[in-house]
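[stage:ingest] chain + small molecule (FO1)
[stage:ingest] validated
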Amino acid sequence: MSSMPVMSGRDVPERITVLSGGVGGARFLQGLLHLARRTGASPEVTVVANTADDWWLHGLKVCPDLDTVMYTLGDGIDVERGWGRRDETWNARDEMAAYGVGPAWFGLGDRDLATHLVRTQMLDAGYPLSAVTEALCRRWQPGVRLLPMTDDRVETHVVIDDPDSGERRAVHFQEYWVRHHAEVPAHGVVPIGLEDSSPAPGVLDALAGADVVLVPPSNPVVSIGTILGVPGLREALAATPAPVVGVSGIIGEDHVRGMARQLLGVVGVEVSAAGVAEHYGPRGRTGSDGAPGVLDGWLVDTVDEKAVERLRSAGIAARAVPLWMTDDDATADLVAASLDLAAEVGRR
Ligand code: FO1
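[stage:predict] done
[stage:export] tokens:
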């Protein structure tokens, strides 16, 4: 048995707010719900999800991070991909390709298409993304309240050296990641519309009214970093009475999956568990980009034990625990460790 504190139901806080990107955040949330079942607790969990990966494709609004959380917690996800629907078919995409209409490199599955059709139909009818997400979740029953970070349009673009033309240009994040696998030189991350966006209904209350706020190992640049960039959001995190505890997505000198290593390099943040925590910044001080710090606590993997002392002197309580989310029990242990650290810093 791992050395993790096994929480009893009374130790799991009542109101838990979780910021989330895509796969890493969804896996972490699965562990949180597993911990609740394991301890007989019934916390009220609110998820504030990144929406800047969203992409208008064939006139449809695709929301990867919202859908990954919704499908994962609603048990409709394709588990090994971590995105899209299980038992998927690709007829519509193949028919589009037969017409010579791409992009062939982006997998829009037939079942997944229904989600984008319903979402786009509701958006066209005038419903905000938050209301659309609530409606879609009535089918999937994810067991959490799923909120987009904003109802406004925000899209992350990445400035790359185009491998075909050699010219420098901005492409949508999906093209950088799915077409180019983040393997082309990148020179900038541009969250278009972010500075004009505002928190979606319920987001600020979910931060102010939480007993604990958790920051899972989602991408610190294009997921968590983007959420923190919604005007008013960092200030709400800096001001909440709830302890804010995060989990490193960097183990050793590399990300667990995705493209955090590449993007941290682009924005000039050290690719390490300590570097990411210092980038978010300790509460009461400023982070590496001069914005108000948001963290009270940070979990690093056991291989990064040396980061604990460095973070403590930076004003962030840290612990080294196993971070690999290999199965629901391992992830539940990780969540228990984050809640335990939150309880410790919350008493300060
Ligand atoms: N990721 C891929 O690596 N390849 C794909 O073809 C792909 C299609 C796709 C379709 C819908 C959707 O919601 C997500 C999809 N993703 C795909 C994942 C997506 O790029 C990432 O999940 C997020 O943008 C990053 O978290």
